Batch of 2 targets.
Target 1
Amino acid sequence: MSRASLFIPLTAFVVIVALLYAGFSLNDPHQLPSALIGKPFPDFDLPALGTQDGTNLRVSKADVRGPVLVNVWATWCPTCRAEHAELLRIRDESGLRIIGVNYKDNPAQARLWLSELGNPYEFNVVDAQGTLGVDLGVYGAPESFLVDASGTIVYKRVGDVNRRVWQEEIKPHLDALAKSAAGGAPHG
Amino acid sequence: MADPRMATFALLVTLFVAPFRVAAEGAIEAFQFDDATQEARYRALTEEFRCPKCLNTNLAGSDAPIAADLRSTVHRLILEGASDQAIRDYLQARYGDFVLYDPPVRRGTLLLWVAPVLLLAIGLAMVVVLTRRRRGVEEPLNDSERARLEELLHGHSGKDAK
């Protein structure tokens, strides 16, 4: 047996450890790669969350005009409460419009939540049955989608939107959209 | 059960079976179908898809709210007359390959499909190399060794029982 072949077990060990490290730590198995990036925002026709009872305004895909952040939230979702302040801050700092999808929630509680914590949303879609949620591939609130001017989903975040996510993920996407919009303007 | 080993065995069997019992009773909705074929398709499909919220539970076995939503989606699509493949496409378009336990062959999943064949090939190659090498080590006996072998095999046959 040659001297070099003595290192085969060590090499194999290092390779296996590297693969396991990549498999277990680099990818969060709970983060599904979104199937919807690059696809149009799904069609829907649902009631909007009124500011008071009795309003029966309906909203549809035509009302989702980008660039806009669509945020799926519910009052039963603790992480949604945690990200709420950041959504308010993003709207105030950047002027990015935010549309809420009130997902499988109690509308009365949702209105109370918005009056207590502040309302970052332009309007809220009431998705009581979770049908829009299924079309969006939502599997746990909160989830956020960045939609461009043509109504295409360009980015998805599963989990809370925090400072880091805003600065490292959402804002760069937004800047890229603004740049391509400015570049494409002369052509119409 | 006086025998502690029997008790341990019974405990192990119980622990092994328990998760399957829970999984089997996960789904509690009572859906109405037009005929038995539709119901059989519903059962087969909800067994086939993976719950997006869970890492290794199918739609039929999961208590997660999203699994209940997707079960009712499958039910609705079946009643609307969608084919099994159309339902698969519907869920895959929204939740990606994750919901399919049987991922399609493409660049990102190629390693998944090729790895077992590759590992088998490596294993076979190792067996071949190792057996060859072992055979190569054998050297013919010299005269004194051959004489000793003869002695061991035949010379002392009467003392074998010792």
Note: The mean pLDDT of chain B is 82.
Target 2
Amino acid sequence: MIPVLVAVTFIIFSLLHFSSADPARIILGEQASGEQIEQLQEEMGLNDPFIEQYLRYASSVFLEGDLGRSYLTNRPVNEEISFRYPNTIKLAVSGILVAVFIGIPLGVISATKQNTVVDNSSMFFALIGVSMPVFWKGILFILLFSLTLGWLPSAGYTTWQHMVLPAITLGWGSAAIIARMTRSSMLEVYRQDYIRTARAKGVREFFVVNKHALRNALIPVITVIGLQFGFLLGGAVLTETIFTIPGIGTLIVQGIRTRDMMIVQGGVLLIAMTFIAINLVVDIIYGFLDPKIREQFK
Amino acid sequence: MGKNKDDVIKKKFDDNVVGPWKEMWFRLRKNKLAVTGLVVLILLILMAIFADYVAPFSYREQDLLNRFATPNATNWFGTDNFGRDIFSRVVYGARVSLRVGLISVGIALFVGGTIGAVAGYKGGWADTLFMRFMDIMLAIPSMLLAIAIVSSLGGGLTNVMIAVGIGSIPQYARIVRASVISLKDQQFVEAARAVGSKNSTIIFKHLLPNTLAPVIVQSTLGVASAILAAAALGFLGLGLEPPRPEWGAMLNDGRHYLRDYPHMTTFPGLAIMITILSLNLLGDGLRDALDPKLKD
């Protein structure tokens, strides 16, 4: 995990290092003279070789947990991020909960009622969910539930009511992918001999589905859920923008607009780190769920 | 009559008279949803190519006295905050979106395919090196990677295509690598090696054409993802420079007038959804046609 983190830091640092934004110019403003800019560049170490600058950044990130200072406000990036990060995590977690609690039952129902109206409508719902861009879903929800019906607020992130529309907006697409995956995985498990044996023994269909089939079908679905979490972290940038949520996503977008690359770098890095940590957790859960994997490490 | 024809074709498959591509086409055209997706996609491509003839107005032509007009006989989708015809902008927007989708997938396919083919064929250190690098790229959510690349390179059509393309490279590398590994020990590759073919000839002439089936499916779905990613960048204001129409940017413009003029967001949104839906239907159909076991 550590080498991946170092490599990710390197990629993000390199990308933003070679951007056209000059930190000294951003800090001093357009009125500053060439001399002043050169002096600040020297002070900030911007004229040092690229590798030296990267090593300085990486050591401050990994050894001190310091993501630097905003070029515009001069406040520590950690401070800017710290109160926004919980909102982004809350949003991504509520999104994945929506996705799991809609996607898995939908996939199971589709598989048990294969090729019926229920199956076709569930899969159509899933297909629409995948095909609609997150930001359009958000706009339509605001139009319907906030502006027309007045049921839910369209901006902010303080009460549970504020969390409903963003969670559904973000989670629907992933619910669709999880539903499709659960369906195909369940159909594959249904063909196994042990399912036929369970039915032959007279086990009730409810238990065949939930105890015998679903537990095994869920193993590949867990991987998809982990991947979807990463997708939701990326999608959070858009959802936060639509619902004006003070999260890492809106901070990154604001950083790009003001060319404050230190903020962009810190935000992207934190989300990438979160994604890597989640993948690790998914791998561990995978080991718990699948006895074959557990055996490999004994 | 139709059933007899199907039986005749099935018999041809069994006798190996029909090639695998014809067999795929036969299966695909029986899938009504996939055919619908294909037809819609062809119509969208034609609309993009002949945008100059299809669109009744220029995408930049402003009519400030006719701002925010709701859909009517002259302006089928209404007009925007500058009085520009939304239908014309949606039509021209198809040109941008499809171009971004196709070219960024082309970039990802070329780079990712080459990396995957070399990693799979050579194995050893080349495989470890390339695929670890792909794993690292996958550790960054693709949307964020695209945002970071565009913020570094700046907006504009070319940079958006590069950003979206780079984000998709690992997927193609993985697919091609898996196919090449399963193929490289087969007899036709050994035969090519035995007659003294160079590694590059074996990879590009013998191996890659045989990996086409999964790559085609992934590319079809990949174009959909690329269009969505480009629209997302446009929505965030990181895409094309105005006044060039881009569906995501049009949605973002319309968002500010949502309460009073929802038509400004409805039509670009529908355009994105229809395009993505048709690509997904076609992609799913192609996957079923190439691997009928999945459908059964």
Note: The mean pLDDT of chain B is 87.
